[in-house]
Design a protein that fits this description.
Residues 123-148 form the CRAL/TRIO N-terminal domain. This is CRAL/TRIO N-terminal domain-containing protein. It is a peripheral membrane protein. Helix content is 49%, strand content 10%. The chain contains twelve helices and five strands. The strands form two sheets. The protein has a three-stranded mixed sheet with strand order 3-4-5. Strand 3 (178-183) and strand 4 (189-193) form a beta hairpin. It is globular, with a radius of gyration of 22 Å.
């Protein structure tokens, strides 16, 4: 569990020519030749947990976490009860860092002026992800965000979870073993793929590439809308990423 007082750190690495400032042979001209890139910590480093007193005021016994994690379709009713608690709402929404909140607000205003700020993607953590992926460059983050919205519209992402039915799921699992299974020690959902057991010929006999891609898109939407909130409530801290485990046994040498 992260300490709420712990501050997010940035790691600067160099690409190309250049040496560390700590090196005895450091020269400013050499340092400036390299391209500096900030590696930002995982978004969960911004966890800020409610106090113990706030937790005591909420009855955890009323929640069935096992049901919430194993059957996300029944998670909605439980989530509505959870949102009535201010402390649990803080867990689901995650903590806001002041310096990040300021640039997120600037990013939000920039998108608003473009007329491209859907309510579904208007939350703090979604906008912060795009800023972090483009090293807090507003222009680059905006271009990436607009391309993302365009892709969602063209691919019909919002309609896929409602309309798309992957009837061949059980057959696909036989030739492409994969799926979510439990959580790691940080409370993040674990996704496993046994790629060494994949039979592509059999896979293409039971489904198509287009349907398989739509299936993965629908699963990602479930992760964002159901799995992360369920895991956040169960772990009593904000969860915004998952642990992916690829088992390569049987793939041979590369």
């Amino acid at each position: 569990m992260h300490n709420s007082k712990e501050k997010a750190r940035e790691i600067v690495i160099l690409t190309g020519a250049g040496v560390s400032k700590q090196s005895p042979s450091f020269k400013e001209s050499q340092f400036t030749k390299g391209k500096a890139k900030s590696i930002h910590p995982p978004i969960e480093s911004h966890w800020q947990l409610p106090s113990q007193e706030e937790y005591k005021r909420f009855s955890w016994s009323n929640l069935n976490f096992e049901l919430m994690l194993s059957n996300p379709r029944k998670f909605g009713a439980s989530l509505k009860r959870v949102r009535k608690s201010q402390s649990l709402q803080e867990v689901l929404e995650g903590a806001h860092v002041l310096k990040d909140e300021q640039i997120v607000e600037s990013f939000r205003e920039l998108l608003f002026l473009e007329g491209q700020l859907p309510a579904k993607q208007n939350d703090y953590h979604t906008l912060l992800r795009f800023l972090r992926m483009r090293d807090f460059d507003l222009t680059k983050a905006k271009d990436m965000f607009l391309k993302y919205l365009k892709w969602r519209e063209e691919f019909g992402v919002d309609a896929i979870p409602k309309e798309f039915k992957f009837e061949e799921y059980r057959e696909v699992k036989k030739c492409y073993p994969h799926g979510f299974h439990g959580v790691d020690r940080h409370g993040r959902p674990i996704y496993i793929e046994r790629i060494g057991m994949v039979d592509l010929n059999a896979l293409l006999q039971v489904t198509t590439i287009d349907r398989f891609v739509k299936y993965h898109v629908s699963e990602q939407e479930k992760t964002l809308n159901w799995r992360y909130p369920a895991c956040s409530v169960a772990a009593k801290k904000h969860i915004a990423s998952y642990h992916e485990y690829l088992r390569c046994e049987g793939c041979g040498s590369f």
